[in-house]
Every structure is written in C-alpha cells, then in structure tokens.
Write a structure and sequence with these properties.
Length: 122
C-alpha cells in the first residue's frame, strides 16, 4: 500500500506563492496517476491539478494558469501555486492511483495523504 505525505502548506498573502510537496513511500509502479485536490470547510473536494497515466497534465479552471504540477521522480510530486487568491485557502491533499480514471475526479483515487493547510490573507 502506497503512503503519501504532503508538506509545504502555510500562510501567505494574497498574490503570493507556495510550493506543496508530496512524497510517496517506495513503490514499483511505472504507470500511475498523481493529483492534487483541495477541500475548504463545507465544500466538496476539488481536483486542481493531476498527472495522467502517461504524464499528461490536467488542471481545473481554478488552477489553470496559476498552479503547476511537477514531478521530480516516481516518489516526489509538487504543486507550485502562484498568484494566490482569497478563495484558495483549503486543506490540500495529494492522491495516488494505479488504475487512474478521470484525472481530476476524487473517485479515481484510493490513496490519499493527510493534507497540508494553505491559508491566504488579504
């Protein structure tokens, strides 16, 4: 069972940047999907960026142009966030799937990290 650990969350002023990191435990999968989701209180979990099975990137409308998903290797994935807005605060989670499906669909992922909190002050 793959395990995920996120880091890099924190508090930033509106317009600022943060880079979130997700590290997986050792695994032998060569084809898999990774994604970043966020969930604010009272809202549904929203996929903001993902790598598909062959490395294609996907972004939500809310993340497109401001968020960049990047992969250093099979175990380290990042979410670079720029131009952060007051509507971006949430718990951010990374997710892993060996089966894939809809890249930004939460139902496509069965393995999740514990989350890292992002706060944006105006």
């Amino acid at each position: 069972q793959v395990q995920l650990v996120e880091s890099g969350g924190g508090s930033v002023q509106a317009g600022g940047s943060l880079r979130l990191s997700c590290t997986t435990s050792a695994h032998t999968y060569t084809h898999f999907c990774m994604a970043w989701f966020r969930q604010a209180p009272g809202k549904e979990r929203e996929g903001v960026a993902a790598f598909g099975r062959i490395g294609t990137t996907y972004y939500s409308d809310s993340g497109k142009g401001r968020f960049t998903i990047a992969r250093e290797n099979a175990r380290n994935t990042y979410l670079q966030m720029t131009a952060l807005k007051p509507e971006d605060p949430a718990m951010y989670y990374c997710a892993f799937s060996e089966f894939c499906g809809q890249p930004l669909g939460a139902d496509s992922y069965s393995t999740w990290g514990q989350g890292t909190q992002v706060t944006v002050s105006s």
